[in-house]
Amino acid sequence: MKNSDRATEVVPRPGGRSARVQAAVFKAVEELKQEGDPSGLTVPAIASRAGVTPSTIYRRWGTLNELLSEVAARNLRPDAPPEKTGNWRNDLAIWLQQFVEEMSSEPGREMLREVLGGERSDNAGQCSAYTRQQLETILDRVAEGEDLPTDVDKLLDRVIAPIMYRILFTAEPPDREWAQTLLDKTLESGQSRC
């Protein structure tokens, strides 16, 4: 590569224009959603509010659904690590109750629908990664020498998956007791094999 070619090469800067555009667009989406008129949530309205052109949004996200999916996935990112009480089982039970309450609330259900409304699976995969990370954080708290009766994959398959199914596909959201029963059975089945 010639020196003159390097001078014209564009290298994206972390926190540069791209990050500012994304932040402005995400903020515009949130503001328009808070106004409560679903018909006002359009690419031209978002672009106008964000101070960008509609083509900027289409170039970056492709469709309105994809943009909404990415915003929802970002909003589902946990704000903090799971509560630490000194007992990993208690931490897991507390985290699960909070998870069920947040995901089965109307705003939680709406965000999940938006995440799944995107054309790419990246955003849904990111949400799964957030849940996996939270569970790994809790299971890392198991005391040295203590048997771990389960693993993250079993928790995802036997606890989180049925909860998400009820949230997304049934009229009756899961309740705390049912979720706790799933967790207890998963932990007990692991102990019986130890």
UniProtKB/TrEMBL annotation:
Domain HTH tetR-type: from-to ranges: 19-79
UniProt key word Transcription: yes
InterPro entries on file: Homeodomain-like_sf, HTH-type_TetR-like_transc_reg, HTH_TetR, Tet_transcr_reg_TetR-rel_C_sf, TetR_C
Residues of the DNA-binding region: 42-61
Recorded superkingdom: Bacteria
Name this polypeptide is given: TetR/AcrR family transcriptional regulator
Keywords assigned by UniProt, alphabetized: DNA-binding, Transcription, Transcription regulation
PANTHER family on file: HTH-TYPE TRANSCRIPTIONAL REGULATOR RUTR (PTHR30055), TETR-FAMILY TRANSCRIPTIONAL REGULATOR (PTHR30055:SF148)
SUPFAM superfamilies on file: Homeodomain-like (SSF46689), Tetracyclin repressor-like, C-terminal domain (SSF48498)
Record Pfam families: TetR_C_11 (PF16859), TetR_N (PF00440)
